[in-house]
Every structure is written in C-alpha cells, then in structure tokens.
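Would you be willing to look carefully at the protein I have copied below?

:::
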Amino acid sequence: MSEIERVGVVGAGLMGAGIAEVCARSGCDVLVVEQNRDAVELGSRRLLGSLDRAVRSGKLTTAEREQAAWRLRWSTDLGDLADRQLVVEAVGEDEQLKTDVVGTVCKVLTDRDAVIASNTSSIPIMKLATATDRPGNVVGLHFFNPVPVMPLVEVVGSLTTSPRTRDRVESFVTRRLGKQTIRATDRAGFVVNALLVPYLLAAVRMVESGTATAADVDAGMRLGCAHPMGPLELCDLIGLDTVTAIAESMYAEYHEPLYAPPPLLRRMVEAGLYGRKTGRGFHPYPSKKEEAA
C-alpha cells in the first residue's frame, strides 16, 4: 500500500483551503481546483493569509511557510487531478453538486487505487459512491473548522468502502497530518453533528419563541457550562446556510422533529444572513472599515 503523497482538493472555501493547507504543511504535493480564476484568487488569498497568521503566532517559521506555499498548485480544470492519489471534495453542502464532482473526479483519476474522499458533514457517503465505478475507493473524511487548529477527523465508510481504503486514509490522517480520527457509520450527521445539530437548533428555537435573546443564550452556555462559544455564535461561525443544509439532510434521513430547521433559521438564510461570512447572523460582525467608522 503506497503512501499518499499527491493530494487534490476540490473547492477552496473555508474547509477546502484549510484541508489544502494542512496537507501542504505536512509535506504533500497539493493541487487545489476551483470553478474559475476569481475563486482561485480568493482561495489562494485565504490560504496564504492563514499561513501568514500561523507565522505571526509562532506556529510556523517563515521557511516552513514558504515550503508549504511552494507545495501548492492551483487549477480550474478537474482533469488536472489525474495523477492524484487522494482527492478530497470540499464543495458546498449540496448532494447533487457533490455527486457531480465525485463522479467527474472518478473518471479522470488514472490510479485505480486512488481514494476519493468527501468532506461532507451530513450527506451519506453511499449516495456519493454510487456516482462512481469504484465505490470501494470512496470514503468520508469530515474535517472540522478551522482545519489547521481542530484535531479531529471523522472517517466514514459506506457499505461499499473497502477496509483497505479506510485503513489507508486513517493512516494518512493520523501519521501524516497528525490528527485524531474516529470512525462513524454512514448515517446523516455521523457522530459529531448527530449530537451537535439538535443542540444548535434548540438554541434557535429558544430565540424564536422569545424565551431568551441570542446574547443571553450564548452567555448562558459560555458562562454556565464553560463552553468556549455559545450555540448561536457557533451557528454564525459554521454558517447558517450550512447549518440549515445539515439539518435538512438529517431530517430527510431520520424524520425526527428535533432535526428540522426552525422557521427562523430558514428565514435568516432566505434573507442572506449567513453569519460571519456575510457580516450578520444571530450577531453582527462589522468589517474593519465599519469598526473604524
């Protein structure tokens, strides 16, 4: 079983850029694919900015930062992933979009042992594997935000994922990336979100019903339960659109009312209030220019 050295990442949003960064910092040859040049430019700025912050905080030396940046390449063509040993899709949390990406990646990979991994936080891996002619090579690798900081990765094997594929990616994540893994069965939400999402939605319902304000809900969990972040602050960090997509996927699988997105959450997403990435969610996030004014 050859060691994974050549990694591809599809998508350079918060998660994709973070996955690409940790792979590059671990010595891998990394190719990141985005849909167009503007997205490549944005993703590159995001990733290099993260490396710069790591240097300023003393977590990387300047030389290590330069080496990681040198290992990164960018493209807008999925066909350039042909020689990759591992490709991680990190596009939006949309089943059809992810299925299309996984299916296309499978067709371009020349190595029949290459692993196709999804960073989905809720979509069953089996649904993605059916888009390929090698379902044994498809696995879930669910990283957590921010990827360079969070130590956990959920490894999710479907009914058709081969033991060899699962063992290979677990070895890569633990030995090469230095992260901790847990195994999850292929059910929507896996382990962490199956526990976390009902808690987040309960906090939304509490605000929706007028039981408490968002500020008080968050203060209560930070100060009363020693959580580092309140549930609504966490929703804003994840993105309310992403929280809604995860909840919808889990509700479709389990039909449990506690997984159903509350109307308030849906209305906020419809209004474009996604949280930190749009400047407003349950709390405001003014830009530096706005703060200065």
